[in-house]
């Protein structure tokens, strides 16, 4: 997010093209606005969704905070979905039709979860409200996990034999769906097995293996997050590409030179502040 936001600060939208060469369109303001809306609100829902997990906010004395954060959370979720869906329809994804379909369905999943979360809250159907809010949060986490998973698979060299720089490789086609569909199954599993309930009877039902796996995954995600922060996210926050993105940039340039790829518009990579 910081990488894109910094472009607005100094007007250097060429930075967007480090992520995807044709992500920013000089002659298509509505597509640029949709992508900007999607990026901004997707960051907000990740923060707000995490805040809603705090039990202190759900206490009777603080319930108004929970409600107002929830309203903003749902609105931002709807906006990030609309922004992403509009951009997919207008411009398409870098990975082609396969990615278009998967990411479009991801946007629909966010939209449906957000509307259902709000609807059940209005109806005071609290159990269903909780279930749909969990589904919504799992979708909010998905975009972050997408980057985490790619960070693990590609490693610091940003290379994998099954990955293509234009995201059309075999691994990429799997990742188009893998980053968000399993999240819904995890939520369903937790809900059906009563893990969401803290009663003594339900605590006895909690599968020990599942909890161990959850703890291991949590540790792995934390480690990869720290590594990704150094390679990409912290540099991005100050408008730099960082070692990981810089490597991908060089690789893409070499590939384009080898394949003789023609661009839709003249582009000067020297304008990117690395």
Describe the SSE topology.
Elements: H1 2-10, H2 16-19, H3 29-51, H4 63-91, H5 97-122, H6 126-154, H7 170-178, H8 181-192, H9 200-205, H10 208-237, H11 242-259
Helix pairs in contact: 1-10, 3-4, 3-6, 4-5, 5-6, 6-8, 6-10, 10-11
Polypeptide structure, described:
The radius of gyration is 20 Å and the shape is globular. The protein has helices at 2-10, 16-19, 29-51, 63-91, 97-122, 126-154, 170-178, 181-192, 200-205, 208-237, 242-259. Helix 3 runs antiparallel to helix 4 (63-91). The longest helix has 30 residues, at 208-237. With 274 residues, the chain is mainly alpha-helical. The model is unreliable at 261-274 (pLDDT under 50). The chain is built from 11 helices and no strands. The two termini are 16 Å apart.
What distinguishing features does this structure have?
274 residues, mainly alpha, disordered C terminus
| SSE order | HHHHHHHHHHH
User: Over the alpha carbons, how many angstroms does the gyration radius reach?
Assistant: 20 Å
Distance between the termini: 16 Å
Overall, the morphology is globular
Number of alpha- plus pi-helical segments: 11
What's the overall average pLDDT, rounded?
76
Largest sheet: none
Structural class: mainly alpha
Report a brief summary of the structure:
With 274 residues, this protein is an all-alpha fold. The protein contains 11 helices and no strands.
